[in-house]
Amino acid sequence: MARWRWRRTSLGGESDRAAFRALHNASLASPALREGLTSASAERSVRHLRALLGTPAAGLGDTSGLLAWDGLGGHHRTQLPGTIQQVAETGRTMIVDQRTLVCEDGGCEVRQAIVSPLVVEDTLVGALVVGAPHTTGGLVRAADEVASWVSGQLELAELDLSRTRLMEAEVRALRAQISPHFIYNSLGAIASFVRTDPDRARELLLEFADFTRYSFRRHGEYTTLAEELRSVERYLLLEQARFGDRLQVTLQVAPEVLPVAVPFLCIQPLVENAVRHGLEASADKSDGVGRLSITARDLDQECVIEVEDDGTGEDPERVRQALAGDTSMDSVGLGNVDARLRNAYGDDYGLVVETAPGAGTKVIVRVPKFAPGVQV
Q: Are 365 and 266 in contact (CB under 8 A)?
């Protein structure tokens, strides 16, 4: 009982509780604002902003007008778009009174409004509207501070969008990087079987069609590990048609991890590197064979995928450069895959590469079985 009473006392006074309420309301508004300034995000966040300010009404608008309103005085919505546009053009906070907020309701608590600009990367994108019976210097400062915080959240949303666009652009570049040589070589291998083994040529052509259909699809940032490995198998069938017994592949996959969501095209580039480097060393071996193994294991809350070759290996410093995005490195998409894994799951889930000159290469991919925002 004594411990319980001490904890009650340690919560602090009213100012501490007010600070907690403010932080709580800010945290509730933040997720919607991180999606950008839209009608949907404004509707979901504006009530929390009104609670944060403790005013009878609040609204959010873009440069064209009001997007959402919460609280009393909803009949004033049509009177504010002109002021919002002025604020968006000038970048200055404005106070509107009863000359603008014309009202025949004697009991209306919204007699004045503060309209504060929202700025993202030096661009005026909209305004925060705070409605109250009357304005004070303290309320104006509070409105400007909340508008500044909202602007920060919208700027983070823009950064998230830019990062997503960059990742999408890198995936397109990765497709372009993989495709030309592989397409040319695959079609050449298929052509070599047209006369000698037409049935096999037909099968390979169908595999090639399925592989390219998957690689060039335009929907979905994520796929299942099963789909990714199915595409890898098609790729390897086409490569084995070219190299025959010179390429030996071992595939071991735990069934439990097949439904796990992974970034699209995160395994195939690693396999292509392994094939290239494994076969590069095969000419120097007594048996002339390049070996590649792919394993996918179930490890508690994670899925671990390993792609290993017995090829020439690489200088670790060059691998670090490739992971940093150096495009001069002869490593298809290594930096791209690493960046997308970190973006999806956090920095703890970047690629791990074990290699040394003459010792082959193992690339390890760890992905959580479940992660917020990651779904097929």
A: yes
